[in-house]
Amino acid sequence: MAKYTQESHITTVEEVKDFFHHIVYDLDINFHPDNDFKDYVSYETGERTMDDDQAELYNRLMDEAFEVCDGDQIYEIGSELLFERLQIE
User: Fold this and answer.
1) What is the dihedral of CA 55, 56, 60, 61, to 10 degrees?
2) Residue-wise over 28-43: b if at least 16 C-beta within 10 A, else e?
3) Taking the alpha carbons of 47, 53, 54, 60 in that order, is the dihedral positive or negative?
4) Lower CB density within 10 Å: C or N end of the chain?
5) Residue 53 DSSP SS3
6) Which neighbouring-strand residues pair with 41?
7) What is the pTM of this model?
8) What is the mean pLDDT of the chain?
9) Looking at the predicted structure, is the pLDDT value of residue 15 above 90?
10) CA distances from 46 to 11, 34, 40, 64 (A)
11) Which is it for the CA torsion 23, 27, 30, 33, positive or negative?
């Protein structure tokens, strides 16, 4: 999970796409941009996927992603990756 640190920032749409790809593929989280990362739990273990510090970092990065994207663009990026990952057409 060390790809993103306290020094990381999201400043471009490409960085939003990379961030979302990391969440979906590297962390294997089926997420929604509006949800708090503190609320995600592992389906297999029932435990939280992130501790408070990690969740706060990812929440900040998601806030930055919202600032970068126009209108519904953030949802389009997220749904495209999730559909690809879940193999939904």
Assistant:
1) -30
2) ebebebeeebbebeee
3) positive
4) C
5) helix
6) 48
7) 0.89
8) 92
9) yes
10) 33, 21, 9, 29
11) negative
89 band by pLDDT with thresholds 50, 70 and 90: low
Task: Identify each DSSP E strand in 1-89 by its residue range.
Answer: none
Q: Please compute, for residue 68, the number of CA atoms within 13 A of its CA located in the half-sphere on the CB side.
A: 19
Q: How many whole angstroms separate alpha carbon 77 and alpha carbon 75? A: 5
For the residues 23-43, what does the mean pLDDT come to? 93
pLDDT score of 87: 81
Backbone angles phi and psi of 87, in degrees to 5: 60, 50
Treating both helix axes as pointing N-terminal to C-terminal, what angle do 13-21 and 52-68 enclose, rounded to 10 degrees?
140
CA quadruple 61, 15, 48, 89: dihedral, nearest 10: 130
Measure the CA–CA gap between 51 and 2, rounded to whole angstroms: 13
